[in-house]
Write a structure and sequence with these properties.
The protein is built from 20 helices and 14 strands. It is globular. A five-stranded antiparallel β-sheet has the order 7-8-9-11-10, with helices on both faces. Strands 4-3-5-6 form a four-stranded parallel β-sheet, with helices on both faces.
Length: 585
Protein backbone atom coordinates (compact mmCIF):
# COMPACT_ATOMS: atom_id res chain seq x y z
CA UNK A 1 0.00 0.00 0.00
CA UNK A 2 1.25 3.49 -0.87
CA UNK A 3 1.07 5.59 2.31
CA UNK A 4 4.35 7.36 3.00
CA UNK A 5 5.66 10.44 1.24
CA UNK A 6 8.94 12.29 0.87
CA UNK A 7 8.08 16.00 0.89
CA UNK A 8 10.73 18.60 0.07
CA UNK A 9 10.71 22.35 -0.15
CA UNK A 10 12.71 24.78 -2.25
CA UNK A 11 14.98 27.33 -0.58
CA UNK A 12 17.84 29.59 -1.67
CA UNK A 13 21.18 29.29 0.07
CA UNK A 14 21.69 33.05 0.36
CA UNK A 15 18.31 33.59 2.01
CA UNK A 16 18.94 30.74 4.45
CA UNK A 17 22.33 32.23 5.34
CA UNK A 18 20.77 35.63 5.96
CA UNK A 19 18.00 34.11 8.10
CA UNK A 20 20.49 32.15 10.20
CA UNK A 21 22.66 35.26 10.68
CA UNK A 22 19.66 37.35 11.77
CA UNK A 23 18.49 34.69 14.22
CA UNK A 24 21.99 34.39 15.69
CA UNK A 25 22.14 38.15 16.25
CA UNK A 26 18.76 38.05 17.99
CA UNK A 27 19.95 35.12 20.11
CA UNK A 28 22.74 37.24 21.62
CA UNK A 29 20.12 39.55 23.16
CA UNK A 30 18.03 36.76 24.71
CA UNK A 31 18.08 36.06 28.44
CA UNK A 32 19.36 32.66 29.58
CA UNK A 33 16.72 29.99 29.88
CA UNK A 34 14.78 27.34 28.01
CA UNK A 35 13.44 29.72 25.36
CA UNK A 36 16.95 30.78 24.40
CA UNK A 37 18.06 27.16 24.23
CA UNK A 38 15.06 26.21 22.08
CA UNK A 39 15.82 29.11 19.73
CA UNK A 40 19.46 27.96 19.49
CA UNK A 41 18.38 24.41 18.63
CA UNK A 42 16.10 25.84 15.95
CA UNK A 43 19.03 27.74 14.42
CA UNK A 44 21.15 24.59 14.55
CA UNK A 45 18.44 22.62 12.74
CA UNK A 46 18.11 25.34 10.09
CA UNK A 47 21.88 25.33 9.57
CA UNK A 48 21.68 21.56 9.16
CA UNK A 49 19.12 22.04 6.41
CA UNK A 50 21.40 24.56 4.70
CA UNK A 51 24.33 22.12 4.83
CA UNK A 52 22.15 19.24 3.63
CA UNK A 53 20.88 21.27 0.69
CA UNK A 54 24.36 22.42 -0.33
CA UNK A 55 25.78 18.91 -0.02
CA UNK A 56 22.98 17.38 -2.07
CA UNK A 57 23.42 20.06 -4.74
CA UNK A 58 27.07 19.08 -5.15
CA UNK A 59 26.14 15.39 -5.06
CA UNK A 60 23.68 15.90 -7.92
CA UNK A 61 26.37 17.65 -9.94
CA UNK A 62 29.16 15.14 -9.33
CA UNK A 63 27.22 11.90 -8.88
CA UNK A 64 29.32 11.16 -5.76
CA UNK A 65 29.99 12.62 -2.34
CA UNK A 66 33.36 14.34 -2.52
CA UNK A 67 35.53 16.85 -0.68
CA UNK A 68 35.02 20.51 -1.54
CA UNK A 69 35.77 23.88 0.04
CA UNK A 70 32.05 24.56 0.48
CA UNK A 71 31.46 21.24 2.25
CA UNK A 72 34.40 21.82 4.58
CA UNK A 73 33.10 25.30 5.43
CA UNK A 74 29.62 23.88 6.01
CA UNK A 75 30.93 21.24 8.35
CA UNK A 76 32.86 23.72 10.48
CA UNK A 77 29.82 26.02 10.77
CA UNK A 78 27.54 23.19 11.85
CA UNK A 79 30.07 21.86 14.36
CA UNK A 80 30.47 25.32 15.92
CA UNK A 81 26.70 25.59 16.39
CA UNK A 82 26.48 22.03 17.74
CA UNK A 83 29.09 22.91 20.37
CA UNK A 84 26.95 25.87 21.44
CA UNK A 85 23.90 23.61 21.79
CA UNK A 86 25.94 21.14 23.85
CA UNK A 87 27.23 23.95 26.08
CA UNK A 88 23.73 25.36 26.62
CA UNK A 89 22.31 21.94 27.47
CA UNK A 90 25.09 20.94 29.87
CA UNK A 91 24.85 24.30 31.69
CA UNK A 92 21.11 23.97 32.21
CA UNK A 93 20.48 26.87 29.79
CA UNK A 94 22.27 29.34 32.07
CA UNK A 95 25.27 31.58 31.49
CA UNK A 96 26.38 33.50 28.41
CA UNK A 97 26.52 32.03 24.94
CA UNK A 98 29.48 33.40 23.03
CA UNK A 99 29.38 32.86 19.30
CA UNK A 100 32.73 32.06 17.69
CA UNK A 101 33.90 35.04 15.64
CA UNK A 102 34.37 32.87 12.58
CA UNK A 103 30.65 32.00 12.37
CA UNK A 104 29.94 35.23 10.47
CA UNK A 105 32.79 34.60 8.02
CA UNK A 106 31.61 31.02 7.48
CA UNK A 107 28.07 32.18 6.68
CA UNK A 108 29.48 34.77 4.29
CA UNK A 109 31.48 32.05 2.48
CA UNK A 110 28.33 29.94 2.06
CA UNK A 111 26.23 32.89 0.83
CA UNK A 112 25.27 32.26 -2.78
CA UNK A 113 21.99 32.46 -4.76
CA UNK A 114 21.87 28.68 -5.15
CA UNK A 115 18.55 26.80 -5.35
CA UNK A 116 18.38 24.07 -2.71
CA UNK A 117 16.05 21.14 -2.16
CA UNK A 118 15.45 20.82 1.59
CA UNK A 119 14.16 17.70 3.30
CA UNK A 120 12.62 18.52 6.66
CA UNK A 121 13.86 16.26 9.44
CA UNK A 122 10.91 13.99 10.25
CA UNK A 123 12.23 13.23 13.71
CA UNK A 124 12.46 16.93 14.58
CA UNK A 125 8.99 17.61 13.19
CA UNK A 126 6.98 14.57 14.27
CA UNK A 127 8.76 12.02 16.41
CA UNK A 128 10.29 14.01 19.29
CA UNK A 129 13.84 13.29 18.19
CA UNK A 130 16.13 15.78 19.91
CA UNK A 131 19.74 16.49 18.91
CA UNK A 132 20.46 16.58 22.66
CA UNK A 133 19.58 12.87 22.75
CA UNK A 134 22.46 12.16 20.37
CA UNK A 135 24.80 14.36 22.39
CA UNK A 136 24.02 12.39 25.53
CA UNK A 137 24.37 9.10 23.67
CA UNK A 138 27.74 10.20 22.32
CA UNK A 139 28.99 11.21 25.79
CA UNK A 140 28.07 7.79 27.15
CA UNK A 141 29.44 5.86 24.17
CA UNK A 142 33.08 5.92 25.18
CA UNK A 143 34.09 7.16 21.73
CA UNK A 144 36.78 9.81 21.65
CA UNK A 145 38.11 12.53 19.40
CA UNK A 146 39.80 9.91 17.20
CA UNK A 147 36.43 8.96 15.70
CA UNK A 148 35.36 9.59 12.12
CA UNK A 149 31.72 10.69 12.32
CA UNK A 150 29.60 9.97 9.24
CA UNK A 151 26.12 11.46 9.01
CA UNK A 152 23.47 10.12 6.65
CA UNK A 153 21.59 12.91 4.90
CA UNK A 154 19.04 14.34 5.45
CA UNK A 155 18.58 14.57 9.24
CA UNK A 156 21.89 12.83 9.87
CA UNK A 157 23.58 16.05 8.74
CA UNK A 158 22.83 17.85 12.00
CA UNK A 159 22.64 14.73 14.19
CA UNK A 160 26.19 13.78 13.20
CA UNK A 161 27.39 17.27 14.15
CA UNK A 162 25.73 16.76 17.56
CA UNK A 163 27.68 13.50 18.02
CA UNK A 164 30.96 15.03 16.86
CA UNK A 165 30.58 18.02 19.20
CA UNK A 166 29.88 15.79 22.20
CA UNK A 167 33.00 13.62 21.74
CA UNK A 168 35.36 16.35 20.57
CA UNK A 169 35.72 14.95 17.06
CA UNK A 170 36.34 16.96 13.93
CA UNK A 171 33.49 18.04 11.66
CA UNK A 172 31.51 15.06 10.36
CA UNK A 173 31.34 13.83 6.79
CA UNK A 174 27.86 13.35 5.35
CA UNK A 175 26.76 10.95 2.61
CA UNK A 176 23.60 10.43 0.59
CA UNK A 177 22.58 6.75 0.16
CA UNK A 178 20.83 6.16 -3.17
CA UNK A 179 19.06 3.36 -4.97
CA UNK A 180 16.18 1.08 -4.00
CA UNK A 181 14.86 1.98 -0.51
CA UNK A 182 15.68 -1.50 0.78
CA UNK A 183 19.07 -1.78 -0.94
CA UNK A 184 20.75 1.61 -0.57
CA UNK A 185 24.34 2.27 -1.66
CA UNK A 186 26.68 5.22 -1.12
CA UNK A 187 28.90 6.75 -3.80
CA UNK A 188 32.16 8.17 -2.44
CA UNK A 189 34.66 10.12 -4.51
CA UNK A 190 38.39 9.26 -4.41
CA UNK A 191 39.53 12.24 -2.31
CA UNK A 192 36.80 11.75 0.29
CA UNK A 193 37.51 8.02 0.30
CA UNK A 194 41.18 8.70 1.05
CA UNK A 195 40.24 11.10 3.85
CA UNK A 196 37.83 8.66 5.47
CA UNK A 197 40.32 5.79 5.44
CA UNK A 198 43.45 7.79 6.27
CA UNK A 199 43.70 6.78 9.95
CA UNK A 200 43.77 3.00 10.25
CA UNK A 201 43.23 3.19 14.02
CA UNK A 202 40.16 5.44 13.99
CA UNK A 203 36.69 4.30 14.95
CA UNK A 204 33.66 5.19 12.84
CA UNK A 205 30.37 6.55 14.14
CA UNK A 206 27.45 6.22 11.69
CA UNK A 207 24.63 8.60 12.58
CA UNK A 208 21.03 8.82 11.38
CA UNK A 209 17.40 8.65 12.41
CA UNK A 210 15.75 5.23 12.25
CA UNK A 211 16.33 2.50 11.26
CA UNK A 212 13.14 1.81 9.34
CA UNK A 213 11.86 -1.13 7.35
CA UNK A 214 15.27 -2.22 6.09
CA UNK A 215 17.96 -0.14 7.79
CA UNK A 216 19.69 -0.09 4.42
CA UNK A 217 20.91 3.49 4.89
CA UNK A 218 22.89 2.51 7.97
CA UNK A 219 23.86 -0.70 6.23
CA UNK A 220 25.10 1.04 3.09
CA UNK A 221 27.70 3.03 5.03
CA UNK A 222 28.84 0.03 7.05
CA UNK A 223 29.01 -2.05 3.83
CA UNK A 224 31.23 0.56 2.18
CA UNK A 225 33.56 0.67 5.19
CA UNK A 226 33.80 -3.10 5.29
CA UNK A 227 34.47 -3.27 1.55
CA UNK A 228 37.36 -0.82 2.08
CA UNK A 229 39.05 -2.81 4.79
CA UNK A 230 37.52 -1.39 7.97
CA UNK A 231 37.00 -4.11 10.54
CA UNK A 232 33.51 -4.48 12.00
CA UNK A 233 34.90 -3.82 15.50
CA UNK A 234 35.60 -0.20 14.53
CA UNK A 235 32.01 0.55 13.48
CA UNK A 236 29.54 2.10 15.95
CA UNK A 237 25.92 2.99 15.23
CA UNK A 238 24.04 6.05 16.53
CA UNK A 239 20.35 5.44 15.62
CA UNK A 240 17.13 7.00 16.87
CA UNK A 241 15.85 3.93 18.73
CA UNK A 242 17.02 0.64 20.25
CA UNK A 243 14.84 -1.56 18.05
CA UNK A 244 15.96 -4.12 15.55
CA UNK A 245 16.07 -3.60 11.81
CA UNK A 246 12.77 -3.89 9.98
CA UNK A 247 11.50 -6.93 8.08
CA UNK A 248 13.03 -5.84 4.76
CA UNK A 249 16.61 -5.90 6.09
CA UNK A 250 19.10 -8.38 4.66
CA UNK A 251 20.39 -11.22 6.81
CA UNK A 252 23.92 -9.77 6.75
CA UNK A 253 22.64 -6.42 7.98
CA UNK A 254 20.62 -8.12 10.73
CA UNK A 255 23.71 -9.94 11.93
CA UNK A 256 25.87 -6.83 11.95
CA UNK A 257 23.19 -4.76 13.67
CA UNK A 258 22.90 -7.34 16.44
CA UNK A 259 26.67 -7.54 16.91
CA UNK A 260 27.65 -3.86 16.97
CA UNK A 261 27.01 -1.21 19.66
CA UNK A 262 23.90 0.91 19.25
CA UNK A 263 24.33 4.15 21.14
CA UNK A 264 20.91 5.54 22.03
CA UNK A 265 19.44 7.92 24.57
CA UNK A 266 15.72 8.31 23.94
CA UNK A 267 13.33 11.09 24.91
CA UNK A 268 12.26 9.31 28.09
CA UNK A 269 15.83 9.18 29.37
CA UNK A 270 16.57 12.72 28.24
CA UNK A 271 13.65 14.71 29.68
CA UNK A 272 11.32 12.33 31.53
CA UNK A 273 13.80 10.67 33.90
CA UNK A 274 15.46 11.87 37.06
CA UNK A 275 17.82 14.42 35.54
CA UNK A 276 18.33 17.96 36.81
CA UNK A 277 15.22 20.16 36.77
CA UNK A 278 16.26 22.41 33.87
CA UNK A 279 16.42 19.32 31.63
CA UNK A 280 13.03 17.81 32.54
CA UNK A 281 9.77 18.20 30.65
CA UNK A 282 7.71 18.49 33.83
CA UNK A 283 9.81 21.50 34.88
CA UNK A 284 9.36 23.12 31.46
CA UNK A 285 5.58 22.68 31.67
CA UNK A 286 5.50 23.98 35.26
CA UNK A 287 7.16 27.20 34.13
CA UNK A 288 4.23 27.76 31.76
CA UNK A 289 1.17 26.61 33.72
CA UNK A 290 2.28 26.37 37.34
CA UNK A 291 3.35 23.51 39.65
CA UNK A 292 2.14 20.04 38.71
CA UNK A 293 0.01 18.21 41.25
CA UNK A 294 1.20 14.81 40.02
CA UNK A 295 3.64 13.37 37.46
CA UNK A 296 2.90 13.79 33.78
CA UNK A 297 0.53 11.12 32.48
CA UNK A 298 1.50 9.57 29.16
CA UNK A 299 -1.40 9.23 26.69
CA UNK A 300 0.57 8.56 23.49
CA UNK A 301 -0.01 5.68 21.09
CA UNK A 302 -3.78 5.64 21.56
CA UNK A 303 -3.55 6.09 25.32
CA UNK A 304 -5.77 9.18 25.02
CA UNK A 305 -8.71 6.81 24.51
CA UNK A 306 -8.59 5.83 28.19
CA UNK A 307 -9.94 9.32 28.90
CA UNK A 308 -13.12 8.57 26.97
CA UNK A 309 -16.22 7.32 28.68
CA UNK A 310 -17.52 3.92 27.71
CA UNK A 311 -16.00 0.47 27.44
CA UNK A 312 -12.75 -0.31 25.67
CA UNK A 313 -14.61 -2.19 22.95
CA UNK A 314 -16.17 1.09 21.77
CA UNK A 315 -12.81 2.87 21.41
CA UNK A 316 -11.90 4.29 17.99
CA UNK A 317 -8.84 2.81 16.24
CA UNK A 318 -5.35 4.22 16.75
CA UNK A 319 -2.27 4.21 14.55
CA UNK A 320 0.81 4.84 16.74
CA UNK A 321 3.03 5.30 13.68
CA UNK A 322 1.60 8.76 13.07
CA UNK A 323 0.79 9.80 16.64
CA UNK A 324 2.82 12.45 18.43
CA UNK A 325 4.09 11.99 21.97
CA UNK A 326 1.55 13.47 24.35
CA UNK A 327 0.97 13.80 28.07
CA UNK A 328 -1.55 15.21 30.53
CA UNK A 329 -0.36 17.75 33.10
CA UNK A 330 -2.57 18.53 36.11
CA UNK A 331 -2.27 21.79 38.02
CA UNK A 332 -4.43 23.78 40.43
CA UNK A 333 -5.91 25.53 37.39
CA UNK A 334 -6.98 22.36 35.59
CA UNK A 335 -5.61 19.81 33.16
CA UNK A 336 -3.36 20.52 30.17
CA UNK A 337 -2.49 18.57 27.05
CA UNK A 338 1.27 18.54 26.46
CA UNK A 339 1.88 17.36 22.91
CA UNK A 340 5.00 17.29 20.76
CA UNK A 341 4.61 19.84 17.98
CA UNK A 342 8.13 20.06 16.57
CA UNK A 343 11.50 21.70 17.14
CA UNK A 344 12.58 25.02 15.66
CA UNK A 345 10.47 26.69 13.01
CA UNK A 346 8.09 23.73 12.82
CA UNK A 347 6.99 24.12 16.43
CA UNK A 348 6.70 27.90 16.11
CA UNK A 349 4.46 27.58 13.03
CA UNK A 350 2.20 25.14 14.84
CA UNK A 351 2.02 27.40 17.88
CA UNK A 352 0.92 30.31 15.69
CA UNK A 353 -1.68 28.19 13.89
CA UNK A 354 -2.93 26.75 17.18
CA UNK A 355 -3.48 30.25 18.52
CA UNK A 356 -5.32 31.34 15.38
CA UNK A 357 -7.64 28.32 15.53
CA UNK A 358 -8.22 28.64 19.29
CA UNK A 359 -8.96 32.36 19.13
CA UNK A 360 -11.52 31.66 16.40
CA UNK A 361 -13.21 29.11 18.70
CA UNK A 362 -12.45 25.99 16.66
CA UNK A 363 -9.94 24.30 19.00
CA UNK A 364 -9.08 24.32 22.73
CA UNK A 365 -7.18 27.30 24.20
CA UNK A 366 -3.38 27.39 23.81
CA UNK A 367 -0.93 28.40 26.54
CA UNK A 368 2.48 28.15 24.93
CA UNK A 369 5.38 26.10 23.61
CA UNK A 370 8.22 24.62 25.63
CA UNK A 371 11.10 23.31 23.50
CA UNK A 372 8.97 21.41 21.03
CA UNK A 373 5.95 20.62 23.21
CA UNK A 374 2.71 22.57 22.73
CA UNK A 375 0.62 23.12 25.85
CA UNK A 376 -3.15 23.39 25.39
CA UNK A 377 -6.07 23.32 27.78
CA UNK A 378 -7.54 19.86 28.15
CA UNK A 379 -11.25 20.34 27.54
CA UNK A 380 -13.63 17.92 29.19
CA UNK A 381 -15.98 17.01 26.36
CA UNK A 382 -17.58 14.02 24.74
CA UNK A 383 -17.19 12.75 21.16
CA UNK A 384 -20.09 13.65 18.93
CA UNK A 385 -22.83 11.11 18.37
CA UNK A 386 -23.41 9.91 14.76
CA UNK A 387 -26.65 11.90 14.59
CA UNK A 388 -24.78 15.15 15.39
CA UNK A 389 -22.96 15.09 12.06
CA UNK A 390 -26.22 15.50 10.17
CA UNK A 391 -27.40 18.51 12.15
CA UNK A 392 -27.54 21.72 10.14
CA UNK A 393 -25.58 23.60 12.79
CA UNK A 394 -22.70 21.11 12.65
CA UNK A 395 -22.47 21.23 8.85
CA UNK A 396 -22.39 25.03 9.01
CA UNK A 397 -19.73 24.97 11.78
CA UNK A 398 -17.65 22.52 9.76
CA UNK A 399 -17.91 24.76 6.71
CA UNK A 400 -16.76 27.79 8.69
CA UNK A 401 -13.85 25.77 10.11
CA UNK A 402 -12.64 24.54 6.72
CA UNK A 403 -13.01 28.00 5.19
CA UNK A 404 -11.02 29.51 8.06
CA UNK A 405 -8.19 27.06 7.43
CA UNK A 406 -8.18 27.84 3.73
CA UNK A 407 -8.36 31.61 4.21
CA UNK A 408 -6.38 32.32 7.40
CA UNK A 409 -3.73 29.66 7.92
CA UNK A 410 -0.44 30.19 6.07
CA UNK A 411 0.18 27.86 3.18
CA UNK A 412 2.76 25.16 4.00
CA UNK A 413 6.17 25.51 2.36
CA UNK A 414 6.29 21.93 1.06
CA UNK A 415 4.11 20.81 -1.82
CA UNK A 416 1.48 18.13 -1.51
CA UNK A 417 0.96 15.23 -3.88
CA UNK A 418 -0.19 16.19 -7.37
CA UNK A 419 -3.41 14.78 -8.81
CA UNK A 420 -1.26 12.41 -10.89
CA UNK A 421 0.51 11.15 -7.76
CA UNK A 422 -2.79 10.73 -5.93
CA UNK A 423 -4.12 8.83 -8.92
CA UNK A 424 -1.10 6.50 -8.87
CA UNK A 425 -1.61 5.90 -5.14
CA UNK A 426 -5.33 5.22 -5.53
CA UNK A 427 -4.84 2.73 -8.35
CA UNK A 428 -2.02 0.93 -6.50
CA UNK A 429 -3.93 0.66 -3.20
CA UNK A 430 -7.10 -0.42 -4.99
CA UNK A 431 -5.22 -3.10 -6.90
CA UNK A 432 -3.70 -4.48 -3.72
CA UNK A 433 -7.07 -4.54 -1.97
CA UNK A 434 -9.37 -5.75 -4.77
CA UNK A 435 -7.19 -7.00 -7.61
CA UNK A 436 -6.03 -5.61 -10.92
CA UNK A 437 -9.42 -5.72 -12.62
CA UNK A 438 -10.97 -3.28 -10.12
CA UNK A 439 -7.83 -1.12 -10.23
CA UNK A 440 -8.12 -0.94 -14.03
CA UNK A 441 -11.76 0.20 -13.72
CA UNK A 442 -10.70 2.92 -11.28
CA UNK A 443 -7.89 4.04 -13.59
CA UNK A 444 -10.27 4.25 -16.52
CA UNK A 445 -12.79 6.16 -14.42
CA UNK A 446 -10.17 8.67 -13.27
CA UNK A 447 -8.85 9.19 -16.79
CA UNK A 448 -12.33 10.36 -17.78
CA UNK A 449 -12.86 12.45 -14.64
CA UNK A 450 -9.58 14.27 -14.13
CA UNK A 451 -8.94 17.33 -16.27
CA UNK A 452 -5.87 19.49 -16.51
CA UNK A 453 -7.95 22.58 -15.79
CA UNK A 454 -9.39 21.42 -12.46
CA UNK A 455 -8.97 24.38 -10.06
CA UNK A 456 -6.49 23.08 -7.46
CA UNK A 457 -5.21 25.52 -4.81
CA UNK A 458 -3.26 23.75 -2.02
CA UNK A 459 -3.86 25.02 1.53
CA UNK A 460 -3.21 23.80 5.07
CA UNK A 461 -5.95 21.18 5.06
CA UNK A 462 -7.02 19.42 8.26
CA UNK A 463 -6.77 16.01 6.55
CA UNK A 464 -8.06 14.20 9.62
CA UNK A 465 -11.79 14.71 9.92
CA UNK A 466 -12.55 11.32 11.47
CA UNK A 467 -15.59 11.13 13.71
CA UNK A 468 -13.60 10.59 16.89
CA UNK A 469 -11.70 13.85 16.30
CA UNK A 470 -14.77 15.98 17.06
CA UNK A 471 -15.92 16.99 20.55
CA UNK A 472 -19.08 18.53 21.90
CA UNK A 473 -17.96 21.29 24.29
CA UNK A 474 -19.97 23.62 26.49
CA UNK A 475 -19.78 26.35 23.87
CA UNK A 476 -20.23 24.23 20.76
CA UNK A 477 -18.14 21.94 18.61
CA UNK A 478 -14.37 21.58 18.99
CA UNK A 479 -11.81 19.96 16.69
CA UNK A 480 -9.04 17.92 18.27
CA UNK A 481 -5.64 17.28 16.66
CA UNK A 482 -5.99 20.04 14.08
CA UNK A 483 -2.44 21.22 13.50
CA UNK A 484 -0.20 19.18 11.27
CA UNK A 485 -1.77 16.47 9.18
CA UNK A 486 -1.26 18.37 5.94
CA UNK A 487 2.46 18.34 6.77
CA UNK A 488 2.64 14.80 8.13
CA UNK A 489 4.93 11.96 7.15
CA UNK A 490 2.59 10.71 4.42
CA UNK A 491 2.23 11.28 0.70
CA UNK A 492 -0.89 13.48 0.71
CA UNK A 493 0.42 16.80 2.05
CA UNK A 494 -1.33 20.13 1.43
CA UNK A 495 -4.30 19.86 -0.90
CA UNK A 496 -7.18 21.95 -2.17
CA UNK A 497 -9.79 22.53 0.52
CA UNK A 498 -11.99 20.23 -1.56
CA UNK A 499 -9.91 17.39 -0.04
CA UNK A 500 -11.42 18.16 3.36
CA UNK A 501 -14.92 18.48 1.89
CA UNK A 502 -14.37 15.04 0.36
CA UNK A 503 -13.06 13.71 3.68
CA UNK A 504 -16.05 15.08 5.57
CA UNK A 505 -18.45 13.54 3.06
CA UNK A 506 -16.84 10.14 3.64
CA UNK A 507 -16.31 10.32 7.39
CA UNK A 508 -19.77 11.65 8.28
CA UNK A 509 -21.78 9.80 5.60
CA UNK A 510 -23.15 13.11 4.39
CA UNK A 511 -26.03 13.05 1.97
CA UNK A 512 -25.61 14.79 -1.41
CA UNK A 513 -27.70 17.66 -0.06
CA UNK A 514 -25.52 17.98 3.06
CA UNK A 515 -22.35 17.89 0.97
CA UNK A 516 -23.72 20.60 -1.30
CA UNK A 517 -24.58 22.71 1.76
CA UNK A 518 -21.05 22.21 3.11
CA UNK A 519 -19.51 23.21 -0.23
CA UNK A 520 -21.68 26.31 -0.28
CA UNK A 521 -20.56 27.46 3.19
CA UNK A 522 -16.89 26.87 2.39
CA UNK A 523 -17.17 28.56 -1.00
CA UNK A 524 -18.96 31.58 0.40
CA UNK A 525 -16.46 32.14 3.21
CA UNK A 526 -13.38 31.35 1.10
CA UNK A 527 -14.36 33.68 -1.70
CA UNK A 528 -13.79 30.90 -4.27
CA UNK A 529 -15.99 28.02 -5.31
CA UNK A 530 -15.19 24.48 -4.20
CA UNK A 531 -15.31 22.51 -7.45
CA UNK A 532 -17.79 19.63 -7.20
CA UNK A 533 -16.01 17.54 -9.86
CA UNK A 534 -12.69 17.90 -8.07
CA UNK A 535 -14.31 16.98 -4.78
CA UNK A 536 -15.80 13.76 -6.23
CA UNK A 537 -12.40 12.71 -7.62
CA UNK A 538 -10.78 13.49 -4.28
CA UNK A 539 -13.33 11.27 -2.52
CA UNK A 540 -11.90 8.31 -4.47
CA UNK A 541 -8.35 9.35 -3.60
CA UNK A 542 -9.29 9.91 0.03
CA UNK A 543 -10.88 6.47 0.36
CA UNK A 544 -7.94 4.73 -1.32
CA UNK A 545 -5.47 6.54 0.94
CA UNK A 546 -7.39 5.77 4.12
CA UNK A 547 -7.72 2.15 3.02
CA UNK A 548 -3.96 1.93 2.58
CA UNK A 549 -3.23 3.83 5.79
CA UNK A 550 -5.33 1.65 8.09
CA UNK A 551 -4.47 -1.59 6.31
CA UNK A 552 -0.77 -0.95 6.84
CA UNK A 553 -1.47 -0.02 10.48
CA UNK A 554 -2.46 -3.64 11.14
CA UNK A 555 1.10 -4.87 10.65
CA UNK A 556 2.66 -4.94 14.09
CA UNK A 557 -0.52 -3.72 15.82
CA UNK A 558 -1.41 -5.01 19.28
CA UNK A 559 -3.73 -8.00 19.32
CA UNK A 560 -6.64 -6.10 20.84
CA UNK A 561 -6.26 -3.29 18.28
CA UNK A 562 -6.69 -5.50 15.22
CA UNK A 563 -10.52 -5.81 15.38
CA UNK A 564 -10.87 -2.00 15.46
CA UNK A 565 -8.49 -1.67 12.51
CA UNK A 566 -10.33 -4.42 10.63
CA UNK A 567 -13.62 -2.58 11.10
CA UNK A 568 -12.35 0.76 9.78
CA UNK A 569 -10.57 -0.94 6.84
CA UNK A 570 -13.76 -2.80 5.94
CA UNK A 571 -15.74 0.43 5.94
CA UNK A 572 -13.31 2.26 3.62
CA UNK A 573 -13.08 -0.78 1.33
CA UNK A 574 -16.85 -1.01 1.08
CA UNK A 575 -17.29 2.69 0.32
CA UNK A 576 -14.47 2.73 -2.25
CA UNK A 577 -15.78 -0.31 -4.09
CA UNK A 578 -19.31 1.08 -4.06
CA UNK A 579 -18.14 4.38 -5.61
CA UNK A 580 -16.05 2.65 -8.28
CA UNK A 581 -18.89 0.37 -9.28
CA UNK A 582 -21.47 3.17 -9.11
CA UNK A 583 -19.44 5.51 -11.31
CA UNK A 584 -18.54 2.78 -13.78
CA UNK A 585 -22.15 1.78 -14.39
Amino acid sequence: MLVYGDPKRRERADILCETIAAQLRALEDRSPGLERHAALVGIFIKAGELVQGLSDLEFESLGVDEISARRETSGVLLLDLARLVAQSWSQGFSGRLVLPDRVWALLKELWAPLPLSIKEGEGYAFYALYPECYMEAARRSGRGANTVVIGIRSIGTSLSAAVAAAIGATAPITVRPVGHPFRRKIQVGPQLSQQLLRDRTADFAIVDEGPGLSGSSFGSVADWLEEHGVSESRVHFFPGHRGELGPEASQAHHQRWAARPRNVVDLDELVLGGGPAPQRLDAWVSELVGPLRQPLQEISGGGWRSMLQGRQKSWPPADPRFERRKFLARTADGTWLVKFAGLGDVGQRKLENARLLAEAGFTPPVFGLCHGFLVQKWVVAEPLAPSDFHRTEFVEHLGRYLAFRARRLPRPAARGASLAMLCEMAVANTGEAFGEAVAARLKSLLSRTLRDDLPVMPVDTDSRLHRWEWLAGKNGFLKADALDHSAAHDLVGPQDIAWDVAGATVEFDLTPQETAALRAVVSDRCGRAVDAELQKALELFYLAFQLGLWTSAKFGAAFDEVPRLDAVVARYAKLLLRRIEGCAN
